[in-house]
Amino acid sequence: MEPLVLARLLWMNWLLGDHFLPSKCLLSLWLTGENKFYGTPINPLMPSHVPGGSSSGSAVAVAAELVDFALGTDTVGCIRIPAAICGILGFRPSHGSVSMIGVQPNSQSLDTVGWFARDPAILHNVGQSLLQLKQATHKRARRFIIADDLFQLSKVPQQKTVHVVKKVIEIFSGYDSPKNLIFCQCIARDVPSLKGFYEESTNPKNGISILKALSSVMLSLQSYEFKTNHEEWVKSTKPKLGPGISNRVRAAVSSNFESIKSFYKVRTEMRSAIHSILKNDGILVIPTIADSPLKLNSKMSQASEFHDRAYALLSITSMSGCCQVSIPMGMHEGHPVAVSFIACHGEDKFLLDTVLDMYSSLQEQARIVSNSLPVPDTNGDMETSELLKEKGNAAFKGRQWNKAVSYYSEAINLNGSNATYYCNRAAAYLELGCFQQAEEDCNKAISFDKKNVKAYLRRGTARESLLYYKEAMQDFNHALVLEPQNKVASQAGKRLKKLIG
Asked: What CATH number was assigned to the domain covering residues 9-14+28-371?
């Protein structure tokens, strides 16, 4: 990368973001990106909402297409959050992999210099330069691990996140089938030092409690190192700060920290825990943020709640030192959707290569899902699949066969062992003349319910249309055994006898 280009990008981050003057900066302590002194950069995706911070200017410059990429700092989420909120790519590299020379430290144990881009190729090229990566390395297989419990914290339906990622993985060679993981159980087990920060009665399955404990350690570590670095400056200068940041700075400077060694022990154990899960070929998939972005000038109580839930997810990478990329995945209810891929410390090229490999397919699949009709937001439970079935039934009655297939398919994605969903989709396929698909769906339905009369009738109809008269006759006869008075089966049997001769 040319020095002039780097200088311009650093200047853009400084100019548009939150780093105007030491006495009036956000200090990487606030995630909304709002700046009461110089005005908040406008989020091009949602002008009425915050851009995310603290590297808000860099994110907005990229999202607004003013620059192809921009640099930023990420201590506790200051690249990942604005990337997610502005609908662009944001990369936090492995801790220590990009030089911090010339950057005023906030918390040296957590600080990183990362970057934003709209194009995965540009994201990759910037990484090649900053990380000084070799151009060619052996391409490894990839294991994807879905953190099921963390997606339960998100308000975005899983068909717009998890199911999109899984669908894309299916089409790539060299990608293992994704595995599911209760992430917080692993953290509770493999990070024993964290036990001192949450109650012993806490259920390891209660992800938000475990992650709140982890984020409290992260924020305590940040505050301790911030005090070490800036206490003298804060007391002598008495800087003017925004309301949320002011409280954080005062608390940090006035605190007497205990158990400092345990902060660093949690950090060390977290890196080891993540490595045991991912090794050098694994990628952890999590939501980047749990909540919808805040509107501008939201109440302090709303902002605090947003921060608490955001830090819970952000603490995973900040405390482990791993690399993470936030990837835009379309919109939900007018707000951007983002998932994050996390790889082990030092596996930055592996992660950048993966994003470059998958990005266009992820965007295509996300568009397909976004263009489908709205789905209730209950994250894949039985109630959601039943509602989808009813929508499919309504579309079927309205002779909208393709929409009916789409709804039944969504229901099957959420609950793939329900015979009725397959049977109903088979009926829609029959109307569309897709007889092989209808036969396959009836096979599935019968495998789950041996007494499903409608499945035998529809499979018989599909087989008759495919000229498999003997097999069709067997299906109609089976239906008659289950329902001796069934007129459809009886008439079909008589018709097929004549055809068979």
From this structure: 3.90.1300.10
